[in-house]
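Worked example 2:
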Amino acid sequence: MNIRRMILFAFSPILVLLATLAAEGQAAQPADWLHIVETPVSIKIETDRLEAVIPKKEPKHWMTGIEKGSFLDKQTGFREVGDGLMVVDWLMEAGSDEAYADQVAAPDGHGVGRYTWYANETDPARREYARIAHGSTHRKRVVEGPQLCHRMKPVQPEIIRGPEFVAVKTTYRYEYAAPGRKPGSLWTQLIVFPKGKRYFVLMDRIDTVNDSPEMFLRNDTPGCIRHEKGDTFSEIYLSYLGGPQGLRISNTEFFTPFAPDEKFGYRRDTHPLPKDFIRAYHLRDKATGADGPWLAGMTLQPSVVYEAWCSQRSGIIVMIEEVYGKPIRAGQSFSAAHMVGYFDTIDQMHALYDQTKGHTGLTADESGWRLVE
């Protein structure tokens, strides 16, 4: 055996090991864009473009969607300025709960009937709060509770890793119901974070155990806005109002509280069906006043929006959206799909919307994710 062959033979195990490590390093490279930190209270997702936290228990504010203040745009350093994103509320329907609002309470003591109890309220302050919070028209009532964002018990979301994305799936069954209804409808929220994107894709789905002539799910799309005289944002954009170009609203319109049914509201039964449904606010640096990116929430099938409003309470703009609002039977389901993220221009929002519109569902497994109708 010559010296060269002897050297190769002696070092062959090391060469094999180095080759193996190199191959493993190459295989691991796609995960370099993603970091996940899971604790007993939350799941933190960090991609190459975003950061976000999904609560499991003991949230900073609400239990559903993206946790308050955690949604970071790495490109600009701006964060969400409300109480979280895509926060989920009651399962509801149109109608009055006046007949039972004062008699029914949830097992935790939280009232089921709370949307018409103020009809006979004698306290002026409470009446005014109810008007500003809910408006004076188009009454609603709860079908099932709890108010998930506020009263949901701890959850154990599933993390799904796939090629160039990560998804988080959370489920919860409603625990109590209005008189004549039963609890147990299943809420599923699926959130997909794609590699290289400044947005996430989200679906809320309801599998109902009740019949209803007009059932809907209430959420915040993309989320509320905390501010003092417009210090955190400069304007709001609503694509579905104001004509083909949408409506751009100065922050000065939100210095004084107004009710959901007073201005900037949308109802499917009173407005023409828009070609897109985009809601966004233009972030602003509180210290300098300089504009940052837009934070937008897009509902990819406009016809699934039952009602939406952009109203001002004390110190907060409420961006409620109600989805579905159609007849449904026990055993059936409905869903809505959204894109939520940061954009430099309104044109960028519309470009993405045009690529993804028309969908109400979302699926994800280890092989990939896709929007479905």
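Confidence is low (pLDDT under 50) at residues 1-30. The helical segments are 3-28, 124-134, 148-151, 346-356.
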